[in-house]
Amino acid sequence: MSDNFKVIGIGGAGVNIVKALGYRNSEYVDSSNFVSFEEISQFVGKQEKNQRAVIVSSPAGEFSSTVLKFVCKALNSKGNKVFLVGIMPFHSESPERKKRGYGVLKELRRIVDSSVIVENENFASAMSEYSWVQAMSRINDYVNELVKGFLSREEPYISDPERKELAPNARAVPK
Ligand SMILES: Nc1nc2c(ncn2[C@@H]2O[C@H](COP(=O)(O)OP(=O)(O)OP(=O)(O)O)[C@@H](O)[C@H]2O)c(=O)[nH]1
Ligand SMILES: [Mg+2]
After folding, report:
1. Which of 13, 78, 122, 153 ranks highest by number of CB atoms within 10 Å?
2. Is the pLDDT of residue 171 over 50?
């Protein structure tokens, strides 16, 4: 695995998960350390060019939904390959949250090179058997497999045919 990558947690879910994964090239962006757009701009400004950036975040979150598009676009325009692991809310959460998540995700898919979603709800059945902490840790393990997959790809591919304008020569399917 090349060292030329960043794993960036954005918002509560993203930061919790990326902290748990423990990659040495981790960055954390949430409302506790970034209070203005100016600070987010500075964060993006100091990111390196032409590397792989894996973003772990929930597009459903209030904070994440306002900054994700901006961060992904900026990283993309610096020549980075941007991957998104999007965390989706449990069914028990408000329908508005879920709706916001899918709306933001749709927009993000035009910007990132590849994305995958993780439905928290798919792990909900584990909640009856395990503690909350154990269930969260299963989600983290799953996200880690996805992150490793992105980082070990020889050449990232475009998963979304809609993203033509940003990557005209990209292949639609892996080799
Ligand atoms: N798997 C997992 N999901 C989480 C965790 N924290 C939050 N979530 C999910 O992520 C969704 C978005 O929450 P946050 O990431 O905290 O949202 P945010 O962008 O920080 O913004 P706020 O909504 O203002 O907190 C929630 O609806 C939860 O479903 C976590 O630690 N692990
Ligand atoms: Mg939060």
Report:
1. 13
2. no
